[in-house]
């Protein structure tokens, strides 16, 4: 994109957030421009500067609109329970991008398997043996049974009933 002033850049992203991708790097590091782009299109976190991908306010704005964008968040924010929770509420697949600590968090994993049972695969071994989490995952997708870590759960009456 040819030389563009800040106000023009801001107007462009307000009309079409994807314009952020084409802007000069200085604008990808401008919080107001990036937040305006995300407000218009939650998918554009990918094009923000690394500094802004580490800004919790920016990442949350994106993740609350489009859960999967947590994959672009700075590693520290993938350890942030609030950020990851917002992502898994929308799409349980986001558990894949969570830190090992959050893959062992009962609340996070339960929320993730509510809308994507197969994501049980990425939960900690401890939680793949948790009856409540396993049952929720199976109720969402019976194929989740293949990811439980406690074979005894396969004999549990409630689990068997959920598999019928």
Please describe what this structure looks like.
By secondary structure, the protein is mostly helical. The protein has nine helices and no strands. The longest helix is centred in the first third of the chain and has 10 residues, at 6-15. It is elongated. The relative contact order is 0.08. The mean pLDDT is 94.
How would you summarize what this structure contains?
The protein is built from 9 helices and no strands. The protein has helices at 6-15, 25-28, 31-40, 50-53, 56-65, 81-90, 106-115, 131-140, 157-163.
Please describe the biggest sheet, giving its number of strands, its sense, and whether it closes into a barrel: none
Q: What is the string of helix and strand elements? A: HHHHHHHHH
* Radius of gyration over all CA atoms, rounded: 19 Å
Give me the count of strands: 0
Low-confidence runs (pLDDT<50, min 5 residues)? none
For the termini, the CA-CA separation is 58 Å
Question: Structural class per helix/strand content?
Answer: mainly alpha
Give the % helix: 40-55%
Strand % is: under 5%
- Mean of all residue-level pLDDT scores: 94
Can you tell me the overall shape?
elongated
Individual helix count: 9
Features:
mainly alpha, 164 residues
Please give the structural blueprint:
Layout: H1 6-15, H2 25-28, H3 31-40, H4 50-53, H5 56-65, H6 81-90, H7 106-115, H8 131-140, H9 157-163
